[in-house]
């Protein structure tokens, strides 16, 4: 995590950043928070999860709030990233269900030979639904904020460097219509997000060479999709298009897909990918992607050429922080352009906070939203707890899904955490047998001294839902015995969570 003070409520701005600020305002900021003040003016730059959640909190605390957003409420998370990608994946998931059809006794009219038949996805319909749901979600957020009395400005914001004699800052806004306006604020929150990283040798054209934000331009299923990058985004799109019926080649520069995730989970998913016909090129790196007459050529660093119809370049994101006047206003940026914040979302600049992907903390909508809420609670003097990354839940929407919370097994294996590990295959669960689920597992980690649940991993269909009981246990410091003594439904997949806790009794 970027700049984090040893005392999460310390680290006031440096003297040069508070020049000309009244002594009272300076003392408030240096003390860690301002008292709640009805009518404080808050300007939020960015309407993604970090921005709109912060706006709702600030309005609840009586502030007058403006949100400046150029793309649409919800930002890229709603319009080009999380919502559309997971909608696409939800469609693909239906096609993976047919794998269990013969075992469950389901067959097509073709005969009793075990062939469940073929299901096809109409990509024009799929993409239309993806875009429609994203726009609807954006409009719903927009309406909610307006009903709460929050002012939404369609445009881009630039933070002015000066601080007024009464401690306010100024944001210059260029609207979508090209008009200029100025907003004064006691508090500014930067929640400008990130954009797809572009390789100079693989310039996207939106037709054949694509970023993750452009995948919804497709109206036909790619004949052969090469995915460059085997992180979360690359793995999710590769798995989805493979399930939708496209030929997929996944280019991974590491030994395995999902290199930053639980090793057992990553190995399982790579095995599923290969079993479903995906080509996974491990320890391979793309040198260039070139457009051809009817597709693309992906050149690897070892000289191999992979010819395909389309290429998705999924190699991370770049923070959207340039051209906003942040450094001139006293905001510290890392070499990568990320805004440096502490655990209550403060920057080093007087009364400027930041949240979301532009901070580089964790690229999760849930973390962005929490950062935004914490920023407003802190800035407006409400009760606040600093951001705690030890209890963050995360999910990878492959099929099966991978959900994690708390410490990782690697931390226990290395001795960093003194704990125990239990690993239960999902196939032994009665409900899983009924559903034809054969791949996946439940892991739970406990503290050796106290028996408290400190983390877990679930690989299964709907793991994003199943991880919640473990997340509660981690957050509330429940012991394995407390988790084991909670009644579960029989048969249910959550029964494996209870069983995992029981195996850690007296471990």
TrEMBL record:
Its cofactor is FAD. Residues 40-372 form the FAD/NAD(P)-binding domain. The keyword Phosphoprotein does not apply. Residues 395-500 form the Pyridine nucleotide-disulphide oxidoreductase dimerisation domain. SUPFAM superfamilies: FAD/NAD(P)-binding domain (SSF51905), FAD/NAD-linked reductases, dimerisation (C-terminal) domain (SSF55424). Residues 1-33 are annotated as: Disordered. Keywords: FAD, Flavoprotein. Belongs to the class-I pyridine nucleotide-disulfide oxidoreductase family. This is NAD(P)H-quinone dehydrogenase.
């Amino acid at each position: 995590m970027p700049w984090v003070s040893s005392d999460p409520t310390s680290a006031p701005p440096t003297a040069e950043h508070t020049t000309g600020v009244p002594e009272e305002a300076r003392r408030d900021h240096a003390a860690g928070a301002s008292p709640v003040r009805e009518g404080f003016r808050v300007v939020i730059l960015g309407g993604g999860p970090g921005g709109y959640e912060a706006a709702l909190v600030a309005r609840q605390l009586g502030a007058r709030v403006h949100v400046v957003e150029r793309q649409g409420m919800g930002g890229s998370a709603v319009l080009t990233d999380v919502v559309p990608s997971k909608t696409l994946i939800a469609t693909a998931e239906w096609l993976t269900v047919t794998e269990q059809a013969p075992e469950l006794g389901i067959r097509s009219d073709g005969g009793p030979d075990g062939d469940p038949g073929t299901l096809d996805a109409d990509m024009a319909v799929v993409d239309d639904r993806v875009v429609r749901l994203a726009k609807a979600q954006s409009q719903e957020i927009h309406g909610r904020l307006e009903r709460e009395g929050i002012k939404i400005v369609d445009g881009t914001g630039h933070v002015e460097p000066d601080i007024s004699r009464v401690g306010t800052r100024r944001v210059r806004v260029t609207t979508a219509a090209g008009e200029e306006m100025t907003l004064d604020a006691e508090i500014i929150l930067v929640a400008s997000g990130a954009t797809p990283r572009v390789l100079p040798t693989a310039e996207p054209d939106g037709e054949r060479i694509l970023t993750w934000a452009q995948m919804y331009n497709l109206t036909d299923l790619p004949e052969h999709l090469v995915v460059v990058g085997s992180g979360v985004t690359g793995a999710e799109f590769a798995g989805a298009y493979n399930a939708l019926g496209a030929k997929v080649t996944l280019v991974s520069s590491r030994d395995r897909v999902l290199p930053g995730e639980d090793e057992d989970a990553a190995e399982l998913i790579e095995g599923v990918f290969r079993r479903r016909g995906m080509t996974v090129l491990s320890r391979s790196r793309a040198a260039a992607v070139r457009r051809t007459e009817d597709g693309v050529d992906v050149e690897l660093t070892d000289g191999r050429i992979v010819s395909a119809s389309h290429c998705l370049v999924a190699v991370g994101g770049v923070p959207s922080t340039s051209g906003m006047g942040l450094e001139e206003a006293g905001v510290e940026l890392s070499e990568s352009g990320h805004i440096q914040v502490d655990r209550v979302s403060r920057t080093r600049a007087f009364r400027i906070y930041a949240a979301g992907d532009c901070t580089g903390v964790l690229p999760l909508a849930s973390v962005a939203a929490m950062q935004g809420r914490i920023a407003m609670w802190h800035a407006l003097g409400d009760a606040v707890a600093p951001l705690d990354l030890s209890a963050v839940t995360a999910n990878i929407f492959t099929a099966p899904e991978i959900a994690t919370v708390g410490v990782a097994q690697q931390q226990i294996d290395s001795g960093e955490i003194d704990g125990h590990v239990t690993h239960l295959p999902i196939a032994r669960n009665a409900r899983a047998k009924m559903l034809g689920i054969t791949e996946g597992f439940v892991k739970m980690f406990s503290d050796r001294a106290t028996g408290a649940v400190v983390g877990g991993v679930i690989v299964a269909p709907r793991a994003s839902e199943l991880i919640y009981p473990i997340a509660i246990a981690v957050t509330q410091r429940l012991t394995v015995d407390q988790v084991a003594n909670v009644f579960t439904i029989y048969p249910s997949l959550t029964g494996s969570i209870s069983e995992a806790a029981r195996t850690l009794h007296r471990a």
